[in-house]
Design a protein that fits this description.
Layout (H helix, E strand, L loop, with lengths): L15 E5 L3 H9 L6 E6 L3 E3 L4 H5 L9 E3 H4 L6 E12 L4 E6 L6 E5 L2 E4 L24 H13 L14
Parallel strand pairs: 1-2, 1-8, 2-5
Antiparallel strand pairs: 3-4, 5-6, 6-7
């Protein structure tokens, strides 16, 4: 990518790439730009990346949460052209080439973040089948680190009783 002059004729700026999502797609896209002549901003509502295939091991106390949850900033510690912005997206203005974000990690207020390129890698929503009892007390889904910790706490307290694992990816 080539640098382009600023609107006021001042020194050229590097193209700015905004990456929405800190999951596999977003992290992968941002890492591919490590040596590119661009500035990269990863925007995610959480400050961590979750490796979901290991969450059941967190729930059963076989692994610590750090094994499947990594701070996004740590994933880019060796990438000087990348920053992480913990925020939710409130809108995209394609004419202005700007993204409206609301800070979620201890800040407040909304800002507009300009971009030259936009990568949308926001992931997917888990599928939950319509089964009788799927929302009953004691039925757990494990999609986040918080879910895994909650189930582990219930198991550790003895409140879980017996366990049956259903699925392996579907719910």
């Amino acid at each position: 990518s080539e640098s382009t002059p600023d609107d006021d004729g001042s020194a050229p700026h590097r193209p700015r790439v905004l990456v929405l999502g800190g999951g596999f797609g977003g992290v992968g896209a941002a890492r591919e730009l490590k040596d590119a002549d661009v500035d990269v901003m990863v925007v995610d509502r959480h400050n961590y990346h979750t490796f979901q295939p290991l969450l059941y091991q967190v729930a059963t106390d076989l692994l610590d949460t750090s094994a499947c949850g990594h701070p996004l900033r740590d994933l880019f510690h060796d990438q000087p052209n990348a920053i992480v912005h913990e925020a939710t997206v409130g809108g995209i203005d394609l004419d202005r080439r700007a993204l409206r974000v609301r800070v979620t990690g201890g800040g407040d207020g909304e800002t507009w973040e300009p971009f030259d390129q936009l990568v949308i890698a926001t992931g997917a929503t888990p599928s939950r089948p319509r089964l009788p009892g799927i929302d009953a007390d004691g039925v757990h889904n494990i999609h986040t680190i918080t879910d895994g910790i909650a189930l582990r706490e219930q198991i550790d307290s003895g409140a879980a009783g017996h366990a049956v694992v259903v699925g392996a990816g579907y719910i």
